[in-house]
Amino acid sequence: MRKLLCLLVGLLPLDLAVAGPLRLEPNFVGVTIVEATSGNTVHAFGVNSTELTTMVSLGSSFDFNGAPGENYDVFYSDSDGSFNLDGEYITIQGIYNGNGSGFNIAIVWFDFSNWDPIRANILTNFSPGTSNYTPGSEQLAVDGSGSTATALGQSVNVNAPMSITVGFSNEASVPEPSTFGLAGAALAGVLWRMRRRG
């Protein structure tokens, strides 16, 4: 019977939504951001890295960059983009003063040591630039595709930078009826067999 219960529990999907500080999630090891100004450039930050655990002044510092003058800051945050070391989300802020539309984020991955990375699939907040913003492009940070990217425009105001705030939720965490049906049928079959033996 104990083996059966273990088997049935194993059939139920794991809910990977964050409920508490992201940095304290079991097996969470960091964040990988793909920036797409000139092809896809990967930037990885460890769970306790200075980049994720502090918020910088974009006027004098940055965590990573794209084109010249396109500077980014990344940090733990609340859903509204406010810095919070114990937040459940990641916020990326940026400034850009070049040509075209800047702030080009293709995808954000949440990295874990015991399973494949989980892509950001929730956008909770964003701030576009003052010009050259492509409306709706903020959603491209959470569409799961590495071939699309945000285009939030241009902004040089370090007090009101462009930004996106993202998180993740396992959309498959709610079991399909078939999962419960199969588990129930298996349990009924085993119980019937055990009853016949007894």
Describe the structure.
- By secondary structure, this protein is α+β, with helices and mostly antiparallel strands.
- It has 3 helices and 9 strands.
- The chain has helices at residues 2-11, 50-53, 177-197; strands at 28-35, 41-46, 64-65, 71-77, 89-95, 105-112, 118-119, 122-127, 162-167.
- The strands form 2 sheets. A 5-stranded antiparallel sheet has the order 3-4-5-9-8. Strands 2-1-6-7 form a 4-stranded antiparallel sheet, with no helix packed on it.
Mean pLDDT across all residues, rounded?
A: 84
What is the helix/strand order?
HEEHEEEEEEEH
Instruction: Note the overall shape.
Output: globular
Specify the structural class: alpha+beta
How much strand content do the residues show?
A: 25-35%
Residue stretches low in confidence (pLDDT < 50, at least 5 long) are 1-15, 172-187
Number of domains: 2
How far is the first residue's CA from the last residue's CA? 14 Å
Q: Give Rg in angstroms.
A: 21 Å
* Share of residues in helices: 10-25%
Please give the structural blueprint.
Blueprint (H helix, E strand, L loop, with lengths): L1 H10 L16 E8 L5 E6 L3 H4 L10 E2 L5 E7 L11 E7 L9 E8 L5 E2 L2 E6 L34 E6 L9 H21 L1
Antiparallel strand pairs: 1-2, 1-6, 3-4, 4-5, 5-9, 6-7, 8-9
